[in-house]
Fold assimilatory sulfite reductase (ferredoxin).
Amino acid sequence: MSRTAQKGQGQWALGYREPLNPNERMKKDSDGLDVRQRILDIYAHTGFDGIDPGDLRGRMRWMGLYTQRAQGIPGGKTAVLEPEELEDAYFMLRVRIDGGQLSADQLRVIAGISTEFGRGVADVTDRQNVQLHWIRIEDVPEIWRRLEAVGLSTTEACGDTPRVILGCPLAGVLDDEVLDATPAVAEVVEKYLGDREYSNLPRKFKSSISGCAHHCTNHEINDVAFVGVRNAAGEAGYDLWVGGGLSTNPRFAERIGVFVRPDQVADVWAGVCAVFRDYGYRRSRTHARIKFLMADWGPEKFRQVLQDEYLHEALPDGPAPARPATDQRDHVGVMKQVDGSNALGFALHTGRIGGELLGTVADIAEQYGKGRIRTTADQKLVVLDVPDEQVEDAVAALAAHDLLVRPSVFRRQTMACTGIEFCKLAIVETKGRAKELTAELERRLPDFDTPVTINVNGCPNSCARFQTADIGFKGMVVGGEEGFQVHLGGHLGFESSIGRKLRGHKVAATDTADYVERVLRGYLEHRTEGESFAAYATRADEEWLR
């Protein structure tokens, strides 16, 4: 791409700093971080109707706040109505949980906020956060006070910012990890969370820093990812990946080809973020993610610009990550910790748990462990530090609340986004439908034991990663009713692939269980020895898959 063409994309580094769209104008008028003080001083007192529109639909995201969808508006109206017609006078509030690390006290605070201010609703997301709903702007100052008193925050949980830093929930716990990335995650958060140098990016910026041997933070689809490796000298460090992301233009991240020492991670992370800030495309929102810059530049140019203009030093070449220990990245089950105790990972129903039950999890974590809880990048939770002799009692205590350490394949492998219940972008209901689908498949295929991921998404934006699931459902209107477009055979790992879209193939929401049952029975009938569903779906005759 010529420099003229690049300049036309609104890259700051090439002198093009004018506001290029309403979002860029909004950020130029006032940094998103400025909205915090207006919430405290003004909006908490005036209420919803007193909020400036630029803050309401823009800057409040910098504080983790999105207006939620008004109840009863069908999916067919999603792209038709104006934002003020779609939104309710309540907010979704996202609590960022960097590295997925929580104490029982922190979880109890979140639980209390959910029950007292959020009608008891809470969702564990596939980016290790907890989302609350039904939040009134008048209650936000008190909610922040409670969160910050236990070291939690909603700062930059949304918006054109560096969002939560993903980390392995079992960092420092499992003995097969390459290295413990907890200090690196903490350093990046300490140095750069809320830093105005990085609070106006072209779009969202998603990060992963992990030494997990299972690659549980899905480095392939993050804007920037540090993946644990060992170099030729046996030194543990990180392989740098840049430019991953899904949504309507899915693209896998690429290796930059460098070896990053643990003490370099924060500087390299800031350098990548700054490259995006200065060279990222700001003219069009749909072209503003770092994956588009990476597609034009390639890893060689990206490395050169990063080193020459931002790090001012060359990074050594480094090795690629080892093959993951397993394709199961969710850390569900009983896992032996390096100290001899056990971690218990358990499946929720597509991330939905509720405030009261979060409090129960905190109690169980203290009763059977040391009060340490972790969130995963697959909408799961993990309780740490359970002694051998208490494992079965703890498993039973969780199961009494339908929190399953040994779930069915379908319960374990199904995810769903927020959906039309609360999301203004959604076209269909997701969490309830996914829960019903899980129950139906457990009833119809009780002996099915091959891992198959089923991801249910309410719109094309892929918050639930439908393109990388074995069976991915993308919400749409089918014949005037809720339905899905089907994607098959998506996979993350050494054979990463985007799911195969069957041309013109759509499934009514009421028919999803019938469809999945047919496809899985076809897989059992036609698969070869040891063949995964993703491999089968890639080669299978299209009629088998319909």
